[in-house]
Protein backbone atom coordinates (compact mmCIF):
# COMPACT_ATOMS: atom_id res chain seq x y z
CA UNK A 1 0.00 0.00 0.00
CA UNK A 2 1.32 3.53 -0.72
CA UNK A 3 2.64 5.33 2.33
CA UNK A 4 0.64 8.47 3.19
CA UNK A 5 2.49 11.74 3.99
CA UNK A 6 2.66 12.10 7.78
CA UNK A 7 1.73 15.79 7.72
CA UNK A 8 -1.39 15.02 5.70
CA UNK A 9 -2.51 12.02 7.75
CA UNK A 10 -2.53 13.88 11.03
CA UNK A 11 -4.97 16.49 9.74
CA UNK A 12 -7.60 13.92 8.73
CA UNK A 13 -10.63 13.19 10.85
CA UNK A 14 -10.69 10.02 12.92
CA UNK A 15 -13.59 8.76 10.80
CA UNK A 16 -11.58 9.22 7.61
CA UNK A 17 -8.57 7.51 9.18
CA UNK A 18 -10.67 4.60 10.39
CA UNK A 19 -12.08 4.11 6.88
CA UNK A 20 -8.60 4.23 5.33
CA UNK A 21 -7.37 1.56 7.74
CA UNK A 22 -10.36 -0.71 7.17
CA UNK A 23 -10.02 -0.38 3.40
CA UNK A 24 -6.37 -1.44 3.57
CA UNK A 25 -5.04 1.90 2.28
CA UNK A 26 -3.41 2.71 5.61
CA UNK A 27 -1.99 0.59 8.40
CA UNK A 28 -2.31 1.19 12.11
CA UNK A 29 1.49 1.18 12.24
CA UNK A 30 1.76 3.97 9.65
CA UNK A 31 -0.77 6.13 11.46
CA UNK A 32 0.83 5.56 14.85
CA UNK A 33 4.24 6.47 13.45
CA UNK A 34 2.75 9.65 11.95
CA UNK A 35 1.27 10.65 15.30
CA UNK A 36 4.52 9.90 17.10
CA UNK A 37 6.33 12.11 14.60
CA UNK A 38 3.93 14.95 15.38
CA UNK A 39 4.49 14.40 19.09
CA UNK A 40 8.27 14.58 18.60
CA UNK A 41 7.86 17.74 16.52
CA UNK A 42 5.39 19.72 18.64
CA UNK A 43 5.08 18.27 22.14
CA UNK A 44 8.36 19.77 23.43
CA UNK A 45 6.81 23.21 22.82
CA UNK A 46 3.12 22.56 23.48
CA UNK A 47 3.39 20.03 26.35
CA UNK A 48 0.07 18.34 25.54
CA UNK A 49 1.06 14.77 26.41
CA UNK A 50 2.82 14.27 29.73
CA UNK A 51 3.26 10.50 29.66
CA UNK A 52 4.14 8.71 26.42
CA UNK A 53 4.53 5.01 25.64
CA UNK A 54 5.80 5.01 22.06
CA UNK A 55 7.09 1.43 22.12
CA UNK A 56 3.87 0.10 23.61
CA UNK A 57 1.82 2.01 21.05
CA UNK A 58 3.81 0.56 18.15
CA UNK A 59 3.39 -2.95 19.57
CA UNK A 60 -0.36 -2.39 19.80
CA UNK A 61 -0.42 -1.03 16.25
CA UNK A 62 1.41 -4.08 14.91
CA UNK A 63 -0.99 -6.36 16.76
CA UNK A 64 -3.93 -4.43 15.29
CA UNK A 65 -2.55 -4.86 11.76
CA UNK A 66 -2.07 -8.56 12.38
CA UNK A 67 -5.66 -8.96 13.57
CA UNK A 68 -6.88 -7.24 10.44
CA UNK A 69 -4.67 -9.43 8.23
CA UNK A 70 -6.18 -12.52 9.85
CA UNK A 71 -9.67 -11.25 9.04
CA UNK A 72 -10.70 -10.87 12.67
CA UNK A 73 -13.57 -8.65 13.74
CA UNK A 74 -12.46 -5.04 14.11
CA UNK A 75 -13.74 -2.56 16.68
CA UNK A 76 -15.01 0.91 15.74
CA UNK A 77 -11.75 2.54 16.91
CA UNK A 78 -9.51 -0.05 15.28
CA UNK A 79 -6.01 1.36 14.75
CA UNK A 80 -6.76 4.91 15.95
CA UNK A 81 -4.12 6.48 18.24
CA UNK A 82 -5.64 8.12 21.31
CA UNK A 83 -4.68 9.76 24.59
CA UNK A 84 -6.50 9.65 27.91
CA UNK A 85 -6.84 12.60 30.24
CA UNK A 86 -4.45 12.21 33.17
CA UNK A 87 -7.38 11.91 35.56
CA UNK A 88 -8.52 8.60 34.07
CA UNK A 89 -6.89 5.49 35.49
CA UNK A 90 -4.57 3.56 33.17
CA UNK A 91 -3.31 0.24 34.53
CA UNK A 92 0.48 0.14 34.35
CA UNK A 93 0.72 3.74 33.12
CA UNK A 94 1.23 6.75 35.37
CA UNK A 95 -1.92 8.67 36.40
CA UNK A 96 -1.17 11.87 38.33
CA UNK A 97 -4.20 14.21 38.28
CA UNK A 98 -1.53 16.90 37.80
CA UNK A 99 -0.67 16.66 41.50
CA UNK A 100 2.66 16.15 43.24
CA UNK A 101 0.85 13.81 45.60
CA UNK A 102 0.34 11.36 42.74
CA UNK A 103 3.39 12.24 40.62
CA UNK A 104 4.60 8.61 40.58
CA UNK A 105 1.22 6.92 40.96
CA UNK A 106 0.77 3.88 38.71
CA UNK A 107 -2.70 2.35 39.06
CA UNK A 108 -3.48 -1.33 38.72
CA UNK A 109 -6.84 -0.85 37.02
CA UNK A 110 -8.32 1.10 34.13
CA UNK A 111 -11.18 3.55 34.28
CA UNK A 112 -14.20 2.24 32.38
CA UNK A 113 -13.75 4.91 29.70
CA UNK A 114 -10.23 3.57 29.10
CA UNK A 115 -11.36 -0.05 28.98
CA UNK A 116 -14.11 0.67 26.46
CA UNK A 117 -11.75 2.46 24.08
CA UNK A 118 -9.19 -0.33 24.30
CA UNK A 119 -11.87 -2.94 23.60
CA UNK A 120 -12.91 -0.90 20.56
CA UNK A 121 -9.41 -1.24 19.10
CA UNK A 122 -7.76 2.07 19.96
CA UNK A 123 -4.00 2.50 20.23
CA UNK A 124 -2.97 4.13 23.53
CA UNK A 125 -0.17 6.67 23.10
CA UNK A 126 -0.21 8.26 26.55
CA UNK A 127 -1.83 10.74 28.93
CA UNK A 128 -2.88 14.34 28.31
CA UNK A 129 -2.10 17.23 30.65
CA UNK A 130 -4.58 18.93 32.97
CA UNK A 131 -4.53 21.45 35.82
CA UNK A 132 -4.03 20.11 39.34
CA UNK A 133 -7.04 17.91 40.15
CA UNK A 134 -8.75 19.38 37.09
CA UNK A 135 -9.32 22.66 38.90
CA UNK A 136 -9.58 25.66 36.59
CA UNK A 137 -9.87 26.26 32.86
CA UNK A 138 -6.14 26.86 32.43
CA UNK A 139 -3.91 23.81 31.98
CA UNK A 140 -0.81 24.01 34.17
CA UNK A 141 0.46 22.14 37.22
CA UNK A 142 3.58 21.82 39.35
CA UNK A 143 4.38 18.35 38.02
CA UNK A 144 4.51 18.94 34.26
CA UNK A 145 4.13 22.68 33.76
CA UNK A 146 1.83 24.49 31.34
CA UNK A 147 0.26 23.33 28.09
CA UNK A 148 0.31 25.92 25.30
CA UNK A 149 -2.21 26.84 22.65
CA UNK A 150 -1.25 25.39 19.23
CA UNK A 151 -2.58 28.50 17.44
CA UNK A 152 -0.62 30.88 19.66
CA UNK A 153 1.90 29.18 21.96
CA UNK A 154 2.12 32.28 24.13
CA UNK A 155 -1.56 31.75 25.07
CA UNK A 156 -3.38 29.20 27.20
CA UNK A 157 -5.17 26.26 25.64
CA UNK A 158 -7.91 26.43 28.29
CA UNK A 159 -8.79 23.48 30.48
CA UNK A 160 -9.13 21.32 32.24
CA UNK A 161 -9.00 18.92 29.28
CA UNK A 162 -6.40 21.19 27.72
CA UNK A 163 -3.81 18.60 26.82
CA UNK A 164 -6.47 16.62 24.99
CA UNK A 165 -7.56 19.60 22.89
CA UNK A 166 -3.98 20.53 21.99
CA UNK A 167 -3.07 16.95 21.06
CA UNK A 168 -6.06 16.82 18.72
CA UNK A 169 -5.51 20.21 17.13
CA UNK A 170 -1.82 19.56 16.47
CA UNK A 171 -2.30 16.05 15.07
CA UNK A 172 -0.67 14.10 17.91
CA UNK A 173 -3.71 11.84 18.30
CA UNK A 174 -6.82 10.94 16.32
CA UNK A 175 -9.19 11.10 19.29
CA UNK A 176 -9.07 12.14 22.94
CA UNK A 177 -11.28 12.00 26.00
CA UNK A 178 -11.84 14.40 28.85
CA UNK A 179 -14.14 15.41 31.67
CA UNK A 180 -16.27 18.46 32.33
CA UNK A 181 -17.55 20.07 35.52
CA UNK A 182 -17.70 23.77 34.71
CA UNK A 183 -16.60 23.68 31.08
CA UNK A 184 -13.55 21.42 30.96
CA UNK A 185 -14.49 19.77 27.65
CA UNK A 186 -16.04 22.85 26.08
CA UNK A 187 -13.57 25.62 26.99
CA UNK A 188 -10.38 23.97 25.63
CA UNK A 189 -12.29 22.89 22.52
CA UNK A 190 -13.21 26.54 21.94
CA UNK A 191 -9.68 27.78 22.59
CA UNK A 192 -8.09 25.14 20.30
CA UNK A 193 -10.58 24.97 17.40
CA UNK A 194 -11.75 21.40 18.04
CA UNK A 195 -15.04 19.89 19.20
CA UNK A 196 -15.88 18.97 22.79
CA UNK A 197 -19.15 17.48 24.01
CA UNK A 198 -20.45 17.61 27.58
CA UNK A 199 -23.00 14.76 27.63
CA UNK A 200 -25.94 14.45 29.99
CA UNK A 201 -25.12 13.02 33.39
CA UNK A 202 -25.13 9.23 33.12
CA UNK A 203 -24.57 9.07 29.37
CA UNK A 204 -20.95 8.03 29.88
CA UNK A 205 -20.59 5.91 33.04
CA UNK A 206 -17.80 7.30 35.19
CA UNK A 207 -16.12 4.37 36.96
CA UNK A 208 -14.48 4.00 39.38
CA UNK A 209 -15.99 6.98 41.16
CA UNK A 210 -16.14 7.78 44.87
CA UNK A 211 -18.87 10.33 44.21
CA UNK A 212 -21.25 8.11 42.25
CA UNK A 213 -24.29 10.34 42.79
CA UNK A 214 -22.47 13.54 41.87
CA UNK A 215 -24.25 15.43 39.11
CA UNK A 216 -21.71 18.06 38.09
CA UNK A 217 -18.79 16.16 36.56
CA UNK A 218 -19.18 14.05 33.43
CA UNK A 219 -16.76 12.25 31.13
CA UNK A 220 -17.00 12.86 27.41
CA UNK A 221 -15.40 12.88 23.95
CA UNK A 222 -13.28 15.36 22.01
CA UNK A 223 -12.44 15.28 18.31
CA UNK A 224 -11.38 17.35 15.34
CA UNK A 225 -14.92 17.34 14.00
CA UNK A 226 -18.44 16.47 15.14
CA UNK A 227 -18.47 13.07 13.45
CA UNK A 228 -15.33 12.10 15.38
CA UNK A 229 -16.96 13.11 18.67
CA UNK A 230 -20.00 11.00 17.77
CA UNK A 231 -17.74 8.05 16.93
CA UNK A 232 -16.00 8.20 20.30
CA UNK A 233 -19.29 8.71 22.13
CA UNK A 234 -20.61 5.55 20.47
CA UNK A 235 -17.83 3.67 22.26
CA UNK A 236 -17.67 5.30 25.69
CA UNK A 237 -21.44 5.73 26.22
CA UNK A 238 -23.86 2.98 27.14
CA UNK A 239 -25.23 1.67 30.44
CA UNK A 240 -23.27 0.10 33.26
CA UNK A 241 -25.11 -1.18 36.32
CA UNK A 242 -22.30 -0.06 38.62
CA UNK A 243 -23.14 3.59 37.86
CA UNK A 244 -26.35 4.56 39.70
CA UNK A 245 -27.04 7.40 37.24
CA UNK A 246 -26.40 5.39 34.09
CA UNK A 247 -28.71 5.94 31.10
CA UNK A 248 -30.23 2.71 29.82
CA UNK A 249 -29.77 3.49 26.14
CA UNK A 250 -27.51 1.84 23.54
CA UNK A 251 -24.40 3.72 22.45
CA UNK A 252 -24.36 2.59 18.82
CA UNK A 253 -27.12 5.11 18.02
CA UNK A 254 -24.42 7.78 17.76
CA UNK A 255 -22.69 6.14 14.78
CA UNK A 256 -25.25 7.47 12.31
CA UNK A 257 -25.48 11.25 11.98
CA UNK A 258 -27.75 11.22 8.95
CA UNK A 259 -28.63 14.83 8.29
CA UNK A 260 -32.03 16.28 9.15
CA UNK A 261 -33.76 19.27 7.60
CA UNK A 262 -33.29 22.26 9.92
CA UNK A 263 -35.21 24.81 7.88
CA UNK A 264 -38.01 24.98 10.41
CA UNK A 265 -35.89 24.70 13.55
CA UNK A 266 -36.27 27.39 16.20
CA UNK A 267 -33.13 28.52 17.98
CA UNK A 268 -32.90 30.47 21.25
CA UNK A 269 -29.91 32.80 21.13
CA UNK A 270 -28.39 34.00 24.41
CA UNK A 271 -25.38 36.26 23.73
CA UNK A 272 -24.44 36.66 27.40
CA UNK A 273 -26.47 34.10 29.41
CA UNK A 274 -28.31 36.55 31.59
CA UNK A 275 -25.92 39.47 31.50
CA UNK A 276 -22.46 37.91 31.91
CA UNK A 277 -19.54 40.08 30.78
CA UNK A 278 -18.34 38.88 27.36
CA UNK A 279 -15.27 40.07 25.48
CA UNK A 280 -16.36 42.06 22.38
CA UNK A 281 -14.40 39.75 20.06
CA UNK A 282 -16.18 36.70 21.47
CA UNK A 283 -19.55 38.43 21.27
CA UNK A 284 -18.94 39.39 17.63
CA UNK A 285 -17.99 35.84 16.63
CA UNK A 286 -21.00 34.41 18.49
CA UNK A 287 -23.20 36.81 16.53
CA UNK A 288 -21.65 35.56 13.30
CA UNK A 289 -22.44 32.00 14.39
CA UNK A 290 -26.06 32.96 15.02
CA UNK A 291 -26.28 34.48 11.53
CA UNK A 292 -24.85 31.32 9.98
CA UNK A 293 -27.51 29.28 11.73
CA UNK A 294 -30.16 31.64 10.40
CA UNK A 295 -28.72 30.97 6.94
CA UNK A 296 -29.59 27.30 7.46
CA UNK A 297 -33.22 28.42 7.41
CA UNK A 298 -33.63 28.37 11.18
CA UNK A 299 -35.55 30.96 13.14
CA UNK A 300 -33.13 32.56 15.61
CA UNK A 301 -34.59 34.58 18.49
CA UNK A 302 -33.15 36.07 21.66
CA UNK A 303 -34.32 33.88 24.54
CA UNK A 304 -32.80 32.20 27.58
CA UNK A 305 -33.82 30.43 30.79
CA UNK A 306 -33.79 32.28 34.11
CA UNK A 307 -30.18 32.17 35.29
CA UNK A 308 -30.76 34.19 38.47
CA UNK A 309 -28.91 32.66 41.41
CA UNK A 310 -27.33 29.98 39.21
CA UNK A 311 -23.72 31.19 39.51
CA UNK A 312 -23.91 31.16 43.31
CA UNK A 313 -25.62 27.76 43.34
CA UNK A 314 -22.89 26.29 41.14
CA UNK A 315 -20.19 27.58 43.49
CA UNK A 316 -21.88 25.89 46.46
CA UNK A 317 -22.27 22.54 44.72
CA UNK A 318 -18.80 22.68 43.20
CA UNK A 319 -17.24 23.34 46.61
CA UNK A 320 -19.06 20.35 48.07
CA UNK A 321 -17.74 18.21 45.20
CA UNK A 322 -14.15 19.31 45.82
CA UNK A 323 -14.46 18.84 49.57
CA UNK A 324 -15.81 15.33 48.99
CA UNK A 325 -13.00 14.43 46.61
CA UNK A 326 -9.98 16.10 48.16
CA UNK A 327 -10.83 17.19 51.71
CA UNK A 328 -9.17 14.13 53.21
CA UNK A 329 -5.94 14.77 51.29
CA UNK A 330 -5.84 18.42 52.25
CA UNK A 331 -5.70 17.47 55.94
CA UNK A 332 -2.35 15.70 55.53
CA UNK A 333 -0.82 17.05 52.29
CA UNK A 334 -1.73 20.72 52.31
CA UNK A 335 1.76 21.75 51.16
CA UNK A 336 1.19 20.00 47.83
CA UNK A 337 -2.04 21.81 46.93
CA UNK A 338 -2.23 25.00 44.90
CA UNK A 339 -4.01 27.91 46.57
CA UNK A 340 -7.09 27.81 44.35
CA UNK A 341 -7.79 24.16 45.14
CA UNK A 342 -7.35 24.82 48.87
CA UNK A 343 -9.81 27.70 48.54
CA UNK A 344 -12.30 25.53 46.67
CA UNK A 345 -12.15 22.70 49.22
CA UNK A 346 -12.38 24.99 52.25
CA UNK A 347 -15.16 27.03 50.69
CA UNK A 348 -17.51 24.17 51.53
CA UNK A 349 -16.97 24.83 55.24
CA UNK A 350 -18.42 28.34 54.90
CA UNK A 351 -21.78 27.19 53.60
CA UNK A 352 -24.73 26.41 55.82
CA UNK A 353 -27.29 23.70 55.25
CA UNK A 354 -29.63 26.44 54.04
CA UNK A 355 -27.08 27.42 51.39
CA UNK A 356 -27.11 23.86 50.08
CA UNK A 357 -30.91 23.71 50.17
CA UNK A 358 -31.10 26.98 48.25
CA UNK A 359 -28.52 25.81 45.69
CA UNK A 360 -30.45 22.62 45.01
CA UNK A 361 -33.65 24.63 44.63
CA UNK A 362 -31.98 26.88 42.05
CA UNK A 363 -30.64 23.87 40.18
CA UNK A 364 -34.10 22.29 40.05
CA UNK A 365 -35.67 25.52 38.83
CA UNK A 366 -33.00 26.08 36.18
CA UNK A 367 -33.51 22.55 34.88
CA UNK A 368 -37.26 23.12 34.63
CA UNK A 369 -36.83 26.53 32.98
CA UNK A 370 -34.36 25.13 30.44
CA UNK A 371 -36.67 22.20 29.74
CA UNK A 372 -39.59 24.55 29.19
CA UNK A 373 -37.54 26.78 26.89
CA UNK A 374 -36.47 23.76 24.84
CA UNK A 375 -40.08 22.78 24.37
CA UNK A 376 -40.51 26.04 22.44
CA UNK A 377 -37.07 25.97 20.82
CA UNK A 378 -34.97 23.14 19.40
CA UNK A 379 -31.62 24.39 20.71
CA UNK A 380 -29.99 27.21 22.64
CA UNK A 381 -26.82 28.85 21.31
CA UNK A 382 -24.45 30.92 23.42
CA UNK A 383 -20.75 31.73 23.87
CA UNK A 384 -18.54 28.91 25.11
CA UNK A 385 -16.02 31.09 26.90
CA UNK A 386 -16.44 34.73 27.83
CA UNK A 387 -12.89 35.64 26.76
CA UNK A 388 -10.30 34.81 24.12
CA UNK A 389 -7.26 32.66 25.01
CA UNK A 390 -5.11 34.69 27.40
CA UNK A 391 -1.38 34.61 28.27
CA UNK A 392 -0.22 31.19 29.38
CA UNK A 393 1.58 32.70 32.38
CA UNK A 394 -1.72 34.11 33.71
CA UNK A 395 -3.33 31.59 36.11
CA UNK A 396 -6.90 32.76 35.48
CA UNK A 397 -8.94 35.72 34.25
CA UNK A 398 -9.28 38.44 36.89
CA UNK A 399 -11.30 40.97 34.91
CA UNK A 400 -13.56 41.03 31.86
CA UNK A 401 -13.98 44.57 30.63
CA UNK A 402 -14.84 46.66 33.66
CA UNK A 403 -16.07 43.74 35.75
CA UNK A 404 -13.76 42.03 38.25
CA UNK A 405 -14.00 38.28 38.77
CA UNK A 406 -14.55 37.15 42.35
CA UNK A 407 -12.63 33.87 42.05
CA UNK A 408 -10.53 31.75 39.71
CA UNK A 409 -13.44 30.14 37.86
CA UNK A 410 -16.07 32.89 37.64
CA UNK A 411 -14.87 33.82 34.14
CA UNK A 412 -16.22 30.45 32.98
CA UNK A 413 -19.83 31.02 34.10
CA UNK A 414 -20.84 30.79 30.44
CA UNK A 415 -20.22 27.05 30.73
CA UNK A 416 -20.92 26.39 34.42
CA UNK A 417 -24.44 27.80 34.21
CA UNK A 418 -25.20 25.26 31.50
CA UNK A 419 -23.65 22.54 33.64
CA UNK A 420 -26.10 23.44 36.40
CA UNK A 421 -29.03 23.12 33.98
CA UNK A 422 -28.21 19.44 33.44
CA UNK A 423 -28.51 19.66 29.64
CA UNK A 424 -25.97 18.40 27.10
CA UNK A 425 -23.83 21.02 25.39
CA UNK A 426 -21.23 21.01 22.64
CA UNK A 427 -18.50 23.44 21.65
CA UNK A 428 -18.08 23.68 17.88
CA UNK A 429 -15.48 25.83 16.07
CA UNK A 430 -17.04 29.10 14.98
CA UNK A 431 -14.13 31.17 13.66
CA UNK A 432 -11.17 33.31 14.64
CA UNK A 433 -10.65 36.70 16.19
CA UNK A 434 -8.86 39.42 14.23
CA UNK A 435 -5.56 38.25 15.74
CA UNK A 436 -6.13 34.61 14.81
CA UNK A 437 -7.40 33.13 18.09
CA UNK A 438 -10.07 30.41 17.88
CA UNK A 439 -13.61 31.00 19.15
CA UNK A 440 -16.22 28.25 19.60
CA UNK A 441 -19.99 28.33 19.64
CA UNK A 442 -21.84 26.55 22.45
CA UNK A 443 -24.96 24.65 21.39
CA UNK A 444 -27.23 23.31 24.15
CA UNK A 445 -29.65 20.50 23.38
CA UNK A 446 -32.62 18.84 24.97
CA UNK A 447 -32.10 16.69 28.04
CA UNK A 448 -30.52 13.34 27.17
CA UNK A 449 -30.85 13.99 23.43
CA UNK A 450 -27.21 14.03 22.40
CA UNK A 451 -28.00 12.47 19.03
CA UNK A 452 -30.10 15.38 17.77
CA UNK A 453 -27.60 17.83 19.26
CA UNK A 454 -24.76 16.16 17.36
CA UNK A 455 -26.72 16.22 14.11
CA UNK A 456 -27.42 19.93 14.43
CA UNK A 457 -23.80 20.65 15.44
CA UNK A 458 -22.64 18.83 12.31
CA UNK A 459 -24.99 20.92 10.17
CA UNK A 460 -23.48 24.07 11.69
CA UNK A 461 -19.99 22.70 11.17
CA UNK A 462 -20.74 22.08 7.50
CA UNK A 463 -21.49 25.76 6.84
CA UNK A 464 -18.92 27.12 9.29
CA UNK A 465 -15.76 25.25 8.24
CA UNK A 466 -13.24 26.72 10.72
CA UNK A 467 -12.50 23.16 11.86
CA UNK A 468 -10.60 22.68 8.60
CA UNK A 469 -8.07 25.36 9.61
CA UNK A 470 -5.21 23.65 11.41
CA UNK A 471 -2.35 25.20 13.41
CA UNK A 472 1.38 24.66 13.07
CA UNK A 473 3.31 23.23 10.13
Written description of the protein model:
Helix content is 38%, strand content 16%. The chain is of the alpha+beta class. Helix 9 links the parallel strand 11 (266-269) and strand 12.
Unreliable residue runs: none
For the record, what is the CATH homologous superfamily label? Answer: Amidase signature (AS) domain
Architecture (CATH level 2) name:
Alpha-Beta Complex
SS-based structural class?
alpha+beta
Number of helices: 14
Spatial strand arrangement across the major sheet: 1-3-2-8-10-9-16-17-13-11-12
Shape: globular
Radius of gyration: 21 Å
End-to-end Cα distance: 26 Å
Strand content: 15-25%
Largest sheet features: 11 strands, mixed
Which features characterize this protein?
single chain; 473 residues; alpha+beta; Amidase signature (AS) enzymes; 11-stranded mixed β-sheet; two-stranded antiparallel sheet; 14 helices; 17 strands; 38% helix; globular
Quick summary of this structure?
By secondary structure, the protein is an alpha+beta fold.
Write the layout of secondary structure elements.
Blueprint: H1 6-9, H2 14-22, H3 28-46, E1 49-52, H4 54-69, E2 81-85, H5 112-119, E3 123-128, E4 140-141, E5 145-146, E6 148-149, E7 152-156, H6 162-169, E8 175-180, H7 186-192, E9 195-198, E10 218-223, H8 226-236, E11 266-269, H9 280-295, E12 299-302, H10 310-333, H11 339-347, H12 353-376, E13 379-383, E14 399-400, E15 403-404, H13 413-421, E16 425-432, E17 438-444, H14 450-464
Helix pairs in contact: 3-4, 6-7, 8-14, 10-11, 10-12, 10-13
Amino acid sequence: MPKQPESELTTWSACELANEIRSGHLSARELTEACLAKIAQHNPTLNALVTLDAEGALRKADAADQRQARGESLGPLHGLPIAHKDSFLTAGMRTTWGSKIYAEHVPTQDSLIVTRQAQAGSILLGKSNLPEFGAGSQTFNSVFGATRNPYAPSKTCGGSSGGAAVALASGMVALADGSDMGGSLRNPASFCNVVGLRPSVGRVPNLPNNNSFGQLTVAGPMGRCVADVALLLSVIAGPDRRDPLTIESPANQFRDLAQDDWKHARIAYSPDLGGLPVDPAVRAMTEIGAKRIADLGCTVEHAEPDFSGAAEAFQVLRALTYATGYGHLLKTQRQHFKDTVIWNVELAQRFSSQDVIDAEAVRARLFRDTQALLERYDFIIAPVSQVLPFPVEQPFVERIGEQSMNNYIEWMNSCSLITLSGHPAISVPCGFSDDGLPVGLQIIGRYRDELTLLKFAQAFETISKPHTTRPLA
